[in-house]
Design goal:
This protein has 4 helices and 9 strands; from the N terminus they run E-H-H-E-E-E-E-H-E-H-E-E-E. The protein is of the alpha+beta class. The protein has one domain: Aminopeptidase, CATH 3.40.630.30. The chain is globular and about 45 Å long. The mean pLDDT is 91.
Amino acid sequence: MSVEPSPSRTTLTFTHEAPQDQPAIEALLDRAFGPGRFVKSSERVREFADFAPELSFCAWADGELLGVVRMWRVRVGATQLVFLGPLAVDTHQQSAGVGGALVERACEAARQAGEAGVLLVGDAPYFARFGFEAGPAKAVVMPGPVDQRRVLVHAFEDLGEGLVGAVEPR
């Protein structure tokens, strides 16, 4: 299923995250998540995983950053994956399809790069439309407390009985 941005809004331009985007990204993440973002289990993953800028995207309109999705290289057991997060959209653009477009673009880039799948912690009803599910991720161990029902994976290859083990650096 393709989620297209609202036609009433200015056309979006998608770019890979670049170093000069960092101040705008941090400001967007601060607005979207506040200081509580640094205590989440997902943040622990980002502390040890390698950032994948070629799989991470920014959504721009008229020079303004409207959304960002970041990807990180991890493994669970012997399976190499990418970890998606954070995904943030400007509050004025939520429900306009920006987040969905970013998720689709990042997942397709990961699939084309030969990754086994994408792992994340998120809202199952939202991410299910992009192919994410909890079942294959039920034995994934995140670094820190997490609601296991929110650990989701979008597999690009057969994961057999699912992922088993801790999320670790590659």
